[in-house]
Amino acid sequence: MTRTHDVAVVGAGPAGLAAAVEAAEAGLDVALVDGAAQPGGQYWRHYDERHARPDDRAGHHGWPVFTGLRERLRTARAAGRIRYLPGRQVYLVTRDEAGTFTLRTTPSGAVGTPESISASGAVGTPESTSASGAGEAAKTFAASSPSGASAPDAAGQVTARALILCTGGYDRQLPVPGWDLPGVMTAGGVQALLKGHRVLAGRRAVVAGTGPFLLPVATGLARAGASVEAVAEANGTLGWLRDPVGAASVPGKAVEAAQYAALMARHRIPYRTRTVVTRILGQDRVEAVRISRVDRDGRPAGPVKEIAADLVALGWGFTPSLELALMLGADTRKDVDGSLVVAVDGFQRSSVEGVYVAGEATGVGGAVLATQEGRLSALALARSLGRPAVPGLMGRLRAAIGRGRRFAAAMHRTYPVPSAWTEWLEERTLVCRCEEVSYGDLRRAHTDLCAHDPRTLKMLARPGMGWCQGRVCGFATAGIAACLNRRETTAEDLRPLSTRSLAAPVTLGELAALDRSRTSPDDPHHDQ
Amino acid sequence: MTYRMTFRGAAVPAEPGQSVGAALVAAGILDWRSTRKAGRPRGLFCGIGVCFDCLITIDGVPDRRACLVPAADGMRLGDSAQDRSLGSPQDRSVGSPQGDESRGGGSRDASQGGGRDEDA
Asked: B96 to chain A: which residues are within 8 Å by CB?
């Protein structure tokens, strides 16, 4: 049946690409599984390469780094060293007694053909994995993918003796009245529309939240022709430049910040610090936002201003994707930015034997750091398998990663989620968009039903129980639970909202097709 | 060449390489389904396959993520009754703990999405 790889790398963003090519070049047999149709992850997201235009790289940072990695991926694939599986999401990962990992994958939908084939069949479900349907899908996979994908086995299954999880992250969100209106998007989603699809999500935009990522989103919108009415930054700004540890760690970042400042000035984008969007107005779509000056903790403390807008881009930092690491039982911790991350040692090893983690899943830190961590994880794994190491290389990488982590921490301290953010909420503000659970619902579950910890809150009021499984509202729900108990959010608050039985929705057919003998004794359905 | 799709019968163009969701937004269509409880409009939110707000019926197949699925010539989008009342994968009888009345109240509220100041 399947060939067992030396290592399966999950995610083809900065960390995963670096890990995969480094492992392959060190002589390992690699599988690279990614949800997107082509490599790059969120950071290097770009238009479909089959229809590329020269200006698609506009606004991209480190593009030559990406094209270099992509070229090495091509070379390694041609040499049979990397089996590349794009357009597939890993929904379950298990480990057998011998220590071999099995990844179950399902089509993400990002590669069109396999699903449309099975969809046109009698079964009528896009992700049907009846034996014939999946086989058919697998056959056409190679031909249909823009990057010429390899085919997974008939059951969409990949086995490997080690894992490097490079699952990245996505925009962290805080609910605010009106955030469920069409025209409100995550900052990353707005960016993805621009970079991945050449589509401007609106004409009059307000970009709000906190952190340096708001700047590329705002300038990207302006460059594409939108009028950016304001960037509302909840914190004071550029504090990290004064942070002796942070600024000295990664000097290039100061240059990048200066470039963005110049772009903001050129496009005449008002940058309002200590300002938050307290309400998004509109009937069936965004019409305006209300912004307010806030104090250091995020409490409204100044005049309120209304700004007409048809697009609101929100981002409060990033939430790492931890479901696969948590499924395997890896230890986690709360990072400086308040997010739950996988705890790793100086060689990117998690607490689970054979499971390495690199990039945002070990702490949000950006693409440069992620690339370094990806390389280090692959080199460390190769060395543990007895492959010769380049003298000094791992030491240099570890030093660079240390500097990058210190810089990331300084950034996180500069752009915290304001501690008083729950005061922007109204009783009727939706917290969980999927299950339509309001802040009032959560408060009532807390007071009337004694749902004090987030897990009980989730069970009784249902936040995080819908399609997205708490990916969007998990951080906010944990924060609300802690706030209702008048204390700070802990890792224990975040964990139950980050754990998912399955990391992607799959059809009953896919579940039924699971080969029980290869599933770990751990019941994958323990959390629901 | 520009692809030609339809959304509930109306023509929606798409450039090869765009997602279904991107093409809809480019055509000025910001929402294509309604929430199960409050019947509120939803379209793209995260834009990268995480939030499932953008679920849509494509060529008769329900619950596809519009932000991920590449546009293709001749696609029929959102032409199922289900797109008007999509819910969660399983409908569950255990609702919000406060009972239907308060749940309904919460829902109606969410439905304004702002615009009124009764709580301010």
From this structure: 437, 441, 461-462
pLDDT tens-digit profile of A345-394?
Answer: 999 999 999 999 999 999 999 999 999 999 999 999 999 999 988 889 99
HSE value, Cβ hemisphere, 13 Å, CA-based, for A318:
26
Question: How many Cα atoms occupy the beta-carbon half-sphere of A47 within 13 Å?
Answer: 20
For residue A58, is it within any domain?
A: yes
Is residue A521 situated within a structural domain?
no
Task: Name the residue type at position B8.
Answer: R
List A94's β-bridge partners, or say none: A102
Report the complex ipTM: 0.89
List the single best residue of B68, B91, B100, B117 to mutate versus A (max A Cβ within 10 A). B68
Is residue A302 located within the same domain as residue A324? Answer: no
pLDDT digits (tens, 9 = 90+) for A406-424: 999 999 999 999 999 999 9
The pTM of the full predicted model, rounded to 2 decimals, is 0.87
Give B101's contacts in chain A (Cβ within 8 Å): none
Q: Are residues A70 and A219 in the same domain?
A: no
Q: Do the chains contact at B15 and A449, CB–CB below 8 Å? A: no
CA-angle at A30, arms to A29 and A34, nearest 5°: 165
Please list every residue in chain B whose beta carbon sits closer than 8 Å to the beta carbon of residue A205.
none
What domain range is A381 assigned to?
Answer: 4-108+156-169+319-389
Residue B82: the pLDDT is 57
DSSP string computed for A114-126: HHHHHHHSSS--T
Is residue A122 a part of any domain in this protein? no
Residue ranges with strand state E in A355-428: 355-357
- Among all residues of chain A, which has the CA nearest to that of B68? A110
pLDDT digits (tens, 9 = 90+) for A193-205: 999 999 999 999 9
Q: Is the pLDDT of residue A520 over 70?
A: no
Distance between CA atoms of residues A488 and A161, nearest Å:
39
Q: How far is CA B108 from the centre of its chain?
A: 18
* A163 and A24 share one domain: yes
The answer to whether B33 contacts chain A (CB < 8 Å) is no
* Portion 38-67 of B in contact with A at CB < 8 A: 38, 40-53, 55, 58-61, 64-65, 67
Q: Which chain A residues are closer than 8 Å to B55 by Cβ?
A: 467
Say yes or no to pLDDT of B92 above 70. Answer: no
What is the least distance, in Å, from the CA of A396 to any CA of chain B? 34
Rounded distance between C-alpha atoms, residue A451 and residue A448, angstroms: 8
Q: Which residues of B12-28 are buried (b: 16+ CB within 10 A; e: fewer)?
A: bebbebbbbbbbbbbbe
| CB pair distance less than 8 Å for A426 and B49 | no
Which range (A12-26, A241-255, B58-72) has the least confidence? A241-255
